[in-house]
């Protein structure tokens, strides 16, 4: 029984690899939760309720406890994973009646309880089930079970701002847990297949899927999100499955290469599609701007070309944006007038948007366009003129541009 570390296989589970795999956004957002006095107080109340929980009693009464005698294949998977992930308490698993592929983990007095839906057991192959169990143990390993985020959001006792923070953290926590599940099954295709089967709810026999198999669906999802401009995506406690697949692909690539980045930068961009400004992975004005990617790419390009070719830093910023179908390199090399095309694409981004840009989105777009123009610590007349042009396209007055430039220069 081994554990993959990069391209090598060690004899024992390396807990340091599991801990270091944790998504940075999970850590940062959890810190923000712990630093909020209202959430700390509400969490204390939820903790009292958790101690009074009768979850184990309910599972013993209404589910089947996993054992080698009753469910040998599932028991083998549980034992295999538990030998790799030490969360400090015994693990007790149950299978409960539910057709959907689902699972959960909760902490009892002296053990962790893992619930697996009958749909998960019937749909997933043994190694795919190991990804799911490893995912649930990841929640336990990173003490996700200590934050009653769902309860705090759903009981209506916290503000909308704190609800957004909690949901953003929940999605980030799912990314961390997915990474543990992937490290436990040690196979990107197994993890991807488990997520695809969860999405489809079908056994699909011996099918195997690669992240590239879901790429076109991922790109179509991005296009739909950008066109819709949905502002209620923050309410989801889990990232969309295509997003999770892209995130584990980014992590696995970095992990196999032995880098410390863990694909966090790419993952932050993916998750920003579901955040709102100020409550995302970075908890900054730029979080929640995944849906604004088209405006930012084409607007920054238009402004960046005002005084000549893009700077190296400017091009790197544009390359970091996730916009389906955008081939920036090809456009810069082959198009005779990339500035005009960038402005045309900016206008198209607005006309294709099915909902009106909110005030916070307009502010975020202009702040980032101004930040991009100010990469060289100055604003030329041509840059200012182009910023004004874009502001007018968005229905903003010229004075708004000057005010935001003043704020930027003051570091506000």
In words, what does this structure look like?
The chain is an alpha+beta fold and 412 residues long. The protein has 2 domains: 3-274, no CATH class; 290-410, TerB-like, CATH 1.10.3680. Helix content is 58%, strand content 6%. It has 20 helices and 6 strands. It has helices spanning 15-20, 24-34, 37-51, 55-62, 72-82, 118-123, 126-141, 149-154, 160-185, 188-200, 215-228, 241-257, 264-271, 293-304, 312-319, 328-334, 338-352, 359-373, 381-393, 398-410; strands at residues 3-5, 8-10, 64-65, 91-96, 103-107, 112-117. The strands form 2 sheets. The chain has a 4-stranded mixed β-sheet, with helices on both faces. A hairpin with a 4-residue loop joins β5 and β6. The termini are far apart.
Task: List low-pLDDT spans.
Answer: 1-13, 282-288
Anisotropy-based shape: elongated
According to DSSP, the number of beta strands is: 6
Number of helices: 20
What fraction of the residues are assigned to beta strands by DSSP? 5-15%
What class would the helix/strand composition place it in? alpha+beta
Domain tally: 2
Cα end-to-end separation: 55 Å
| Biggest sheet record | 4 strands, mixed
What is the compact description of this entry?
The protein is built from 20 helices and 6 strands. By secondary structure, it is of the alpha+beta class.
Helix/strand layout:
Elements: E1 3-5, E2 8-10, H1 15-20, H2 24-34, H3 37-51, H4 55-62, E3 64-65, H5 72-82, E4 91-96, E5 103-107, E6 112-117, H6 118-123, H7 126-141, H8 149-154, H9 160-185, H10 188-200, H11 215-228, H12 241-257, H13 264-271, H14 293-304, H15 312-319, H16 328-334, H17 338-352, H18 359-373, H19 381-393, H20 398-410
Parallel strand pairs: 4-6
Antiparallel strand pairs: 1-2, 3-4, 5-6
Helix pairs in contact: 2-9, 5-7, 7-9, 7-10, 9-12, 10-12, 12-13, 14-17, 14-18, 14-19, 18-19, 18-20, 19-20
């Amino acid at each position: 029984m081994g554990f993959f570390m990069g391209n090598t296989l060690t004899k024992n589970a390396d807990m340091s690899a599991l801990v270091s795999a944790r998504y940075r956004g999970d850590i940062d957002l959890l810190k923000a939760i712990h630093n909020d006095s209202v959430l700390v107080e509400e969490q204390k109340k939820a903790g009292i309720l958790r101690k009074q929980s009768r979850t184990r009693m309910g599972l013993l009464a209404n589910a089947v406890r996993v054992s080698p005698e009753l469910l040998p294949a599932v028991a083998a998977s549980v034992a295999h994973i538990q030998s790799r992930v030490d969360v400090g308490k015994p693990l007790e698993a149950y299978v409960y009646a539910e057709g959907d592929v689902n699972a959960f983990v909760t902490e009892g007095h002296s053990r962790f309880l893992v619930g697996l839906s009958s749909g998960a057991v019937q749909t997933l192959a043994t190694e795919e089930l190991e990804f799911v169990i490893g995912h649930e143990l990841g929640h336990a390993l990173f003490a996700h079970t200590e934050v009653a985020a769902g309860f705090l959001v759903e009981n209506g006792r916290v503000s909308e701002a704190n609800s957004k923070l909690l949901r953003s953290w929940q999605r980030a926590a799912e990314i961390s847990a997915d990474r543990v599940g992937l490290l436990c099954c040690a196979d990107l295709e197994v993890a991807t297949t488990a997520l695809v089967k969860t999405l489809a709810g079908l056994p699909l026999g011996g099918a195997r899927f690669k992240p590239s198999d879901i790429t076109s669906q991922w790109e179509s999802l991005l296009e739909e999100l950008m066109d819709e401009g949905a502002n209620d995506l923050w309410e989801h406690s889990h990232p969309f499955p295509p997003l999770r697949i892209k995130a584990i692909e980014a992590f696995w690539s970095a992990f196999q290469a032995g880098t410390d980045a863990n694909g966090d930068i790419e993952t932050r961009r993916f998750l920003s599609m579901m955040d709102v400004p100020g409550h995302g992975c970075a908890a900054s004005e730029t979080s929640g701007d995944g849906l604004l990617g088209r405006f930012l790419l084409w607007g920054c390009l238009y402004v960046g070309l005002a005084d000549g070719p893009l700077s190296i830093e400017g091009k790197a910023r544009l390359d970091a944006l996730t916009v389906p179908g955008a081939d920036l390199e090809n456009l810069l090399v082959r198009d005779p007038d990339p500035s005009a095309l960038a402005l045309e694409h900016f206008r198209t981004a607005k006309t294709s948007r099915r909902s009106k840009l909110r005030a916070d989105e307009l502010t975020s777009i202009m702040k980032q366009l101004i930040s991009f123009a100010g990469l060289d610590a100055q604003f030329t007349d041509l840059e200012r003129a182009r910023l004004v042009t874009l502001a007018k396209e968005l229905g903003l007055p010229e004075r708004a541009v000057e005010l935001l430039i003043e704020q930027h220069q003051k570091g506000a």
